[in-house]
């Protein structure tokens, strides 16, 4: 027991959980929390922002790129509401974040008196946008409440959590018990019957394809071993990229995987919602519960996922444990894969030629890939070059391709990249963004300079929300509305913030500018001037017409290298 304020107890508990950074914007309701952060500044740093939305995206980028908890602290009411887009992004991308916010004074809570920053049922709002939300009623409850939130964010299917505390309670002092780190709930062990069913499905398959997502980021070794064991192609869309390095023979991007898709008879999803086959290769308009002629195995820590798609082989387990159990069972069954690596290599070669038409985006991506180290981070954004990176950017290590998942939150990229760099100060971080998305968080250039966050931001300026403009031209008779943009001179504007700035208009000119920006180690901005309407659409390589499977005839049982089935 020790006499502490609620704010001090919260900070002590964060430190006990290994939290080294809080992204925070102080206000009257949270002064005691920030005062406690100041007094422990040798153990935990506070990084500010110019807008609350950026706070939460920085926490998201920190978590998404590291797997560790990303923590942020806005004021209540409008402050916390400004963070909800990033909160939804963390929910969709399974990134563990923790929002610590204030509330009106306890005598006013729930009274509807219109106190400063009062919301009707703030806790209820947070509970609907997070995996766990709780209000701290007394100082003595603070350590347990913070640990419960951290445990929820890091257990099972990861995601955002939130804690609120009233203005006066945050400053209140009491004898508060010491508290250790949060307990992270262990995932259920794989069930033998489920493993056996999955083995049977694999033995009956001729052309399996493995799909991986965010839930498998920590299981790279196991996933690679399974791919080798099955001699199966491995594809990831966003969150799972780099789990199997894309310069490995069995790893394919989503554009290459399409050329193998017609012969696939078994889908194996590991820690993924299976967006690629069910939405991008199926239908964006209908929630298909089955894909004709193909069977489905799912390894996922979330049992609810097994009900969302027609699953022939559900295996409810952590990705690492589930895949390891499956490998052991395949060994015990004497499984031998048929495999045909030539098919995979041919698909990759064919795709490499086809995607060259997506210009100038592909040439820009090649220049960036050449300059960025293998372990460097690329933070994409909803932009023409960002969409092209879904298939045109090779990823070599887990977590080094940072995306916003299915939320598609325009403007997330630049502030998220600041969080990535805060988590990995010694590694290169490049943010690629369009002019529209970058303007969402442009003031955070000041944050980058103030805190020495050395992100290299490449702004592709085509003076439009180009996807919208293109659709209006092609689908709505050229009736453009709200899609053309009037922009500042990003180069000159960046310099007014004290950011190193470069102006280029070609991939060849980008190369030396990017090399200098990465070498400087400080915040840099490269303004890429793109002639409007000249970018080739990347969407033909993302959205595909559904294909029926063309499964080869089964080999005879006596010649099947997998043995009797």
Can you walk through the features of this model?
With 565 residues, the protein is of the alpha/beta class. The C terminus is likely disordered. The protein has 23 helices and 20 strands. The strands form four sheets. The protein has a six-stranded parallel beta sheet, sandwiched between helices. The longest helix is centred in the first third of the chain and has 15 residues. It folds into three domains: 175 residues, Thiamin diphosphate (ThDP)-binding fold, Pyr/PP domains (Rossmann fold); 159 residues, TPP-binding domain (Rossmann fold), CATH 3.40.50.1220; 184 residues, Thiamin diphosphate (ThDP)-binding fold, Pyr/PP domains (Rossmann fold, 3-Layer(aba) Sandwich), CATH 3.40.50.970.
Characteristic terms for this protein:
single chain; 565 residues; alpha/beta; Rossmann fold; six-stranded parallel β-sheet; 39% helix
Secondary structure layout:
Elements: E1 2-5, H1 6-16, E2 21-24, H2 31-39, E3 45-47, H3 52-66, E4 70-73, H4 78-81, H5 84-93, E5 97-103, H6 122-129, E6 132-136, H7 142-154, E7 160-166, H8 167-171, E8 173-176, H9 192-204, E9 208-212, H10 220-230, E10 233-236, E11 251-252, H11 254-261, E12 266-270, H12 275-280, E13 295-300, H13 305-308, E14 313-316, H14 319-333, H15 341-354, H16 361-371, E15 377-379, H17 384-392, E16 401-402, H18 413-423, E17 429-434, H19 435-439, H20 444-450, E18 456-461, H21 466-475, H22 490-496, E19 500-504, H23 507-520, E20 524-529
Helix pairs in contact: 1-2, 1-7, 3-5, 3-18, 9-14, 10-14, 11-15, 16-17, 16-23
């Amino acid at each position: 027991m020790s006499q502490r304020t609620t704010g001090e107890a919260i900070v002590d508990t964060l430190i006990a959980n290994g939290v080294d950074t809080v992204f925070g914007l102080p206000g009257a309701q949270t002064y005691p929390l920030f005062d406690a952060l100041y007094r422990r500044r040798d153990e935990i740093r506070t990084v500010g922002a110019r807008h609350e939305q950026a706070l939460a995206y920085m926490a998201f980028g920190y978590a998404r790129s590291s797997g560790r908890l990303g923590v942020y602290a806005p004021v209540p009411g409008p402050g916390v509401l400004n963070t909800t887009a990033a909160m939804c992004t963390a929910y969709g991308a399974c990134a563990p974040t923790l929002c610590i916010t204030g509330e009106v004074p306890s005598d006013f809570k729930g009274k509807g008196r219109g106190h400063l920053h009062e919301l009707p049922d703030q806790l209820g709002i947070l509970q609907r946008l997070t995996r766990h939300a709780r209000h701290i009623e007394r100082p003595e409850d603070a350590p347990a409440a913070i640990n419960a939130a951290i445990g929820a964010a890091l257990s099972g299917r990861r995601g955002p959590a939130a804690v609120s505390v009233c203005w006066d309670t945050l400053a209140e002092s009491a004898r508060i018990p010491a508290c250790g780190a949060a307990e992270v709930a262990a995932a259920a062990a794989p069930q033998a019957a489920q493993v056996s069913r999955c083995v049977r499905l694999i033995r009956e398959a001729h052309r399996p394809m493995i799909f991986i997502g965010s839930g498998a980021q920590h299981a790279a070794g196991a996933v690679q071993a399974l791919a080798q064991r099955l001699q199966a192609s491995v594809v990831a869309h966003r969150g799972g990229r780099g789990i199997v390095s894309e310069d490995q023979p069995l790893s394919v991007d989503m554009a290459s995987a399409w050329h193998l898709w017609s012969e696939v008879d078994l889908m194996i999803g590991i820690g993924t919602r299976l967006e690629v086959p069910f939405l991008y290769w199926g239908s964006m308009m209908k929630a298909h519960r089955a894909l004709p002629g193909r069977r489905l195995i799912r390894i996922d820590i979330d049992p609810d996922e097994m009900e969302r798609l027609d699953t022939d082989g559900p295996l409810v387990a952590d990705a690492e444990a589930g895949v390891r159990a499956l490998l052991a069972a395949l060994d015990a069954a004497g499984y031998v894969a048929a495999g045909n690596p030539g098919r995979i290599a041919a698909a990759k070669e064919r795709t490499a030629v086809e995607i060259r038409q997506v210009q100038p985006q592909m040439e820009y991506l090649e220049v960036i890939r050449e300059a960025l180290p293998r372990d460097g981070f690329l933070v994409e954004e909803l932009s023409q070059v960002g969409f092209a990176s879904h298939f045109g950017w090779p990823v070599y290590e887990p977590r080094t391709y940072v995306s916003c998942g299915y939320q598609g939150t325009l403007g997330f990229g630049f502030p998220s990249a600041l969080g990535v760099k805060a988590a990995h100060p010694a590694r290169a971080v490049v943010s690629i963004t369009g002019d529209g998305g970058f303007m969402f968080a442009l003031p955070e250039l000041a944050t980058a300079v103030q805190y020495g966050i050395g992100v290299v931001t490449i702004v592709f300026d085509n003076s439009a929300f180009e996807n919208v403009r293109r659709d209006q031209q092609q689908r709505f008779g050229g009736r453009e509305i709200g899609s053309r943009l009037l922009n500042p001179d990003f180069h000159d504007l960046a310099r007014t913030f004290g950011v190193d700035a470069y102006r280029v208009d070609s991939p060849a000119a980008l190369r030396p500018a990017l090399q200098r920006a990465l070498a400087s180690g400080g915040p840099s901005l490269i303004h890429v001037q793109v002639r409007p309407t000249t970018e080739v659409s990347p969407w033909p390589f993302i959205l595909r017409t559904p294909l029926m499977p063309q499964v080869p005839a089964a080999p005879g049982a006596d010649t099947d290298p997998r043995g009797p089935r």
